[in-house]
Design a protein that fits this description.
The chain is mainly β. It has no helices and 17 strands.
Amino acid sequence: TISGTSVSFGSSAVFTSDLTNHPACSFDSTSNRVVISYKNDSQSNKLYAVVGTISGTNLSFGTQVQFESRSNANFPTPVYDANANKTVIVWSSPFGGGTSGFGVAIVGTVSGTSISFGSMATFSSSNTEHQTAAFDSVNNKIVVAYSDDSDTDKAKAIVGTVSGTSITFGTAVTWQT
């Protein structure tokens, strides 16, 4: 709870009893819920998300949902698209297979204390790291920034448009060489 320039906290709450890595959180303002995405070390390093409900200073959580079934994906980061009323999660796909190390994204729909997902989309067909995302409320777009390991670690950004349970991307732009 924020009061002026001070902050106070309620009790901590466990969103999973599994070992986790890279947790990140976004707020779904339509459903008044939080979405936490994370790497689940106890489940073969696959990626999961869980919906949290805030009541006063307490948090409660629904059931965790797997959205990346391959092991060793990294840095799942959620962002809420207030125009589409969807949560978009971006991450670096695991090495091996058809999207080896690629930057990928998925659209999630919160319903009550659960979240469901559409199909995975690729925003970078090269090895990516340190991806993060923000919602542009003027243009109603998602902006993803990331490091392109396949292009001498250049910093790039790309715009995504959510439609239903899908997201499509424009062309990446290098903003730091």
